[in-house]
Design brief:
Elements lengths: L3 H6 L1 H12 L2 E2 H8 L3 H13 L3 E6 L2 E6 L1 H32 L11 H16 L5
Antiparallel strand pairs: 1-3, 2-3
Length: 132
């Protein structure tokens, strides 16, 4: 059996999972929205179902697929330690940048766009009256 990461690494499966986030879907609805053939959709749904990512119910003549939360909770738990690692580094970067460029409490941080504009305006003013 494929690993969880091999299963979700496949772009068509990720597209199917993305569709199922908002609501349950039939094979036909998935086909139309993703412009895939019925055999392709069915193949990917089978892999997702066997891995526990989706489950299906029968509604009259059609089979509806929906996400199962358990595999995503397991992935989230596994990723949590990396999220903490990332957050610690982002917080350290923020502290470092604050030390490099201390701002008065009432001064707003300029946006990059404003900063560029201010530099251009300063350069234009500096070059006024100069001849080339």
């Amino acid at each position: 059996m494929e690993s969880v990461f091999e299963i979700i690494a496949e772009p068509n499966r990720r597209a199917i999972l993305s569709l199922l986030v908002s609501s349950q879907q039939s094979v036909g609805e998935i086909e139309r929205q993703l412009r895939m053939t019925q055999p392709t959709v069915s193949k990917h749904l089978r892999v997702l179902r066997e891995a526990g990512f989706v489950e299906s119910t029968v509604d009259a003549q059609r089979r509806l697929y929906r996400l199962k939360p358990e595999p995503f909770e397991e992935l989230d738990a596994w990723l949590a330690r990396f999220r903490r690692f990332w957050s610690e580094h982002v917080d350290a970067l923020e502290r470092h940048l604050d030390r490099m460029h201390p701002l008065a409490p009432t001064t707003a941080t300029p946006t990059k766009k404003k900063t560029r504009r201010n530099r251009r305006d300063a350069n234009r003013g500096h070059n006024k009256g100069e001849t080339k």
